[in-house]
Amino acid sequence: MSAPRIGLALGGGAARGLAHIPMLEVFDEMGIKPAVIAGCSFGALVGAAYASGIPAKDIGDHARHILANRVQAAKYLFGVKGARLRDLLQRKSLTSLLIDGEQLTSFIFPDGVAKHVEDAEIPLKIVTTDFAERREHVISSGPMCRAVAASIAIPGLISAPTIDGRLYVDGGITNPVPFDHVRPGSDLVVAIDVTGRLRQPRRAHHSNMELAVGSMLIMFHQIAVLRRQQNPPDIYINPPIEGFMANDFFRISEMIEAASKAKDELKRALELRIERIT
User: Fold this and answer.
1) Considering 32, 54, 134, 141, which has the largest number of Cβ atoms within 10 A of its Cβ?
2) How far apart are CA 142 and CA 266, in angstroms?
3) Rounded distance, CA 136 to CA 199, Å?
C-alpha cells in the first residue's frame, strides 16, 4: 500500500509559533512529507518556508540567527537585508504607526521560499480573516509574502494588506488551528496547537502589545478548543510552551528546547496511526 496522505495544520500563536520548528523536524527525521499544509498567523510563516522545501533544521538555524537578541535582529534587518526604518513602518494617521507586514515578511523569510503560494513544493493553504465579511478566507495562490502578511496582520500592530480590493487580517481570529482545511483527501490529519496556556507575566504592568497579543491568544485558544471538540483531527499536539509569552521571540532557543519535549509524542502518534492505516 502507498504511504498515507498526511494533512498538517500549523496554528497561530505569535512567538509561540516558533514551537512548530521541532514538530516539523519530526517529519524530516521520519522521512515523512505532508501531502498538504495549512497555516495561520505564525504557523503560515513557518509553513510557507517548510512547504517551499526548506528543511526544518535550516528554518530553525535561520530563526536563531535572526532572533539571537535584539541587536542581532537589527543587524540582520538593517545590515544584511539593507532595510530602512521607513520600509518597515506605515503611518496610517498622526497617531497610528504600524509595522508593514509585507515588508517584514519579505525581510525575514529565509532564502528559497517560493515567490507564489501555488509554487510551493507541498500544497499550501494560508488562512486569513476577511475583515469586512467577518469570516475566514483561505489563500492558495498569489504572492507568498502578501498572503503570509495577511495571515499575521494583527490589528493595531502589523498592517493588513488589501488583496483584490479586500482587507485581510490575522487568520487566527477565525480559525487558529486550521486542521479542517487539510482534511479533504487526507488519510491522516495532524494539528499543532501553540495557543495554549500563557504563563504569568514577569512584570506587574503589561505593555500595550502584551495586552493586545495576549488577549488575541486567549481568543485563539477558546476558538481552537471549540473547533477541536466539534470535529477533532487524528493527532493533536500541544507543545509544552506554557512558560513563554506571545512576544518572547528572543527566547527562541529556550522555546525550541521546551517544545522539543513533544517530539517523541508526535513520533509515537504518527507511527501508531501510519501502522493502522497501512
Assistant:
1) 54
2) 32
3) 29
Residues 129 and 163 sit within 8 Å (Cβ to Cβ): no
Question: By three-state DSSP, how is residue 227 classified?
Answer: helix
Q: How far is the C-alpha of 223 from the C-alpha of 226, rounded, in Å?
A: 5
The model's pTM is 0.91
The β-bridge partners of 90 are: 98
The number of beta carbons lying within 10 Å of the beta carbon of residue 43 is 33
Phi, psi (rounded to 5 degrees) for 169: -125, -175
Question: What span, in angstroms and rounded, lies between the C-alpha atoms of 173 and 176?
Answer: 7
The predicted pLDDT at position 94 comes to 44
Please state, in angstroms and as integers, the Cα–Cα distance from residue 133 to each residue in 148, 160, 166, 173, 174, following that order.
Answer: 19, 15, 9, 13, 11
pLDDT of residue 258: 96
Q: Which residues contact 246 (CB under 8 A, 6 or more apart)?
A: 13, 14, 15, 16, 198, 210, 213, 214, 216, 217
First to last CA, the chain: 6
What is the rounded distance in angstroms from the CA atom of residue 233 to the CA atom of residue 128?
20
